Amino acid sequence: LAARGVKPAADRKPCHAGRRIQDRAAAPDAGQFLEQRTPGALDLGRGGVGITKLNPQGNQRIYAARFGSSGTDLPREIAIDSQGNAVVVGSAGCFTSCDFPILNAAQPVPPTAGGGGFVAKLNATGSALIYSTYLGTGTEEIWGVDVDAAGNAYVTGNTASFNFPTTPNAF
Question: Are 67 and 47 contacting, i.e. CB atoms less than 8 angstroms apart?
């Protein structure tokens, strides 16, 4: 599993966002942790976004969930809100197909240029998505996320797009 970024929850319990390492020769047991998903945890049966929550001692898996597209999704960072929900961001693998799971989306339309970012919020038990949305037009890389006390997600990254969707009167 290749880790990207972790932001601790207020309760300081570890949570991990990552993707599988494809070179099993270099890491023969890579991916086994996600292969042992928790009963009842979200498992859409495809995709490269894996989220694992461990107990404070790190010796017990609370949940391990996976979701994503049939492409190569790259999770970058995770933040935990005050309710224990996990917000994970990254790049959606829309280069071959745009079938990333979308729910309650701010941007339900997939990027047109192949790629683009995603923001997804997983509930505190790891059993369901609260929301999942595309972000951008296809040339974006989403690198960071933070969550305020009200649960709003703040996402950062880069774009080379001239038509990145902005809100009216935005800077």
Answer: yes
Contact of 24 with 30, CB cutoff 8 Å: yes
Joined together, the tokens standing for residue 101 give 């799971």
Q: Please, are residues 8 and 31 in contact by the beta-carbon 8 Å criterion?
A: no
Nearest to 132 by CA among 154, 101, 111: 101
Report the distance separating Cα 56 and Cα 67, nearest Å.
24
pTM of the model: 0.74
Q: What is the 3-state secondary structure (H, E, C) of the chain?
A: CEECCCCCCCCCCCEEEEECCCCCCCCCCCCHHHHCCCCCCCECCCCCEEEEEECCCCCCEEEEEEECCCCCCEEEEEEECCCCCEEEEEECCCCCCCCCCCECCCCCCCCCCCCCEEEEEECCCCCCEEEEEEECCCCCEEEEEEECCCCCEEEEEECCCCCCCCCCCCC
pLDDT value of position 50: 87
Q: Encode pLDDT of 3-45 as tens digits.
A: 445 444 444 444 445 443 333 333 344 444 444 556 667 766 5
Distance from C-alpha of 8 to C-alpha of 78, rounded to nearest angstrom: 9
